[in-house]
Amino acid sequence: MRQKIIAGNWKMNLNIDSGKDLLSNIIDSDLSNECLTIVAPPNIHLNTFKAMLSHTTIALAAQNCHAQPSGAYTGETSVEMLKSVGVEYVILGHSERREYFSEDSLAISYKVNAVINGGLRPIYCCGETLAQRQEGEHFETISTQIKQGLFQLNEMELLNCVIAYEPVWAIGTGETASPEQAQEIHSYIRKTIADVYGEIVANSVSILYGGSVKPGNAKELFNCPDIDGGLIGGASLDASSFATLTTSF
Ligand code: PGA
Asked: Which helix (H) or strand (E) holds 184?
């Protein structure tokens, strides 16, 4: 079940033409089949991109969803809608959603449930701010985010989740957590899971690192025993960098 993964989070970038160009270049690149490659474009591109991906092994992710199945939620997208266009993964709890859209771990846990109940797989993000790290609160922050967002799930459901550790201070800043810092948190996340679900479950969940990952620093991060790949922002917008990351294990 524990799988190596490179997931590209395009965030709110690229229109349909530039998006298609990037995706075509990614499809034509030498992607390693040692890891699963996922792309998470803006929702408006998902349907078109699914058709482009039909003869590839690249999986499609959304960057967010609503917790309710349907109804009067202007501007929102349900899990069922994502499923109907072939989405397999949904990024949830990204720090940008937590910060700019006031999502907390409890609200995100409802989205996690919706994704799991809809048969898709969440990529659940957690991570501390710089202030929290400087105050020595990073372990507690991560543990609270993991427990509140995911621990309502049963064992089988948790096994369908991917976790991404993304220290907020490293996202889009060019600052990367050192391999030691990242490994320390990844192993702590695994221990937090093991304490409740047991070692086998904890060792079966893929935990990705995110935060300024690029070809120059990926290998040393991905070599860490508890890091199973990356959630990639900036470097996922360049086909050759993104492809190189898939070969960095
Ligand atoms: P970054 O973004 O690689 O640009 O730091 C990572 C993310 O936000 O998922």
From this structure: helix 179-197
**0.90 exceeded by the pTM?**
yes
At residue 114, what is the residue type?
A
For residue 171 and ligand 1, the question of a CB distance below 6 A is answered with yes
**Is there an atom of ligand 1 within 6 Å of 212 CB?**
yes
pLDDT digits (tens, 9 = 90+) for 98-129: 999 999 999 999 999 999 999 999 999 999 99
Cβ of residue 166 lying under 6 Å from some atom of ligand 1: yes
**Secondary structure of 92-154 in HEC code, one letter for each residue:** ECCHHHHHHCCCCHHHHHHHHHHHHHCCCEEEEEECCCHHHHHCCCHHHHHHHHHHHHHCCCC
Q: Would the CB of 210 count as within 6 Å of ligand 1?
A: yes
Q: Give the N- to C-terminal CA distance of the chain in Å, as an integer.
A: 17
Q: Are strands 59-62 and 162-165 parallel, antiparallel or unpaired?
A: unpaired
Residue 173 CA: nearest ligand 1 atom is 5
Tokens of residue 247, six digits: 């070969």
Indicate which residues carry an active-site annotation. 94, 166
Residue with tokens 């890091």: 227
Q: What is the pLDDT of residues 148-173, one digit of tens each?
A: 999 999 999 999 999 999 999 999 88
Locate 166 and state its tokens: 């993304």
Tell which atom from ligand 1 comes closest to the C-alpha of 9.
9
Cβ-proximal residues to 162 (8 Å cutoff; 6+ apart), any chain = 5, 7, 89, 121, 122, 123, 124, 205, 206, 207, 208
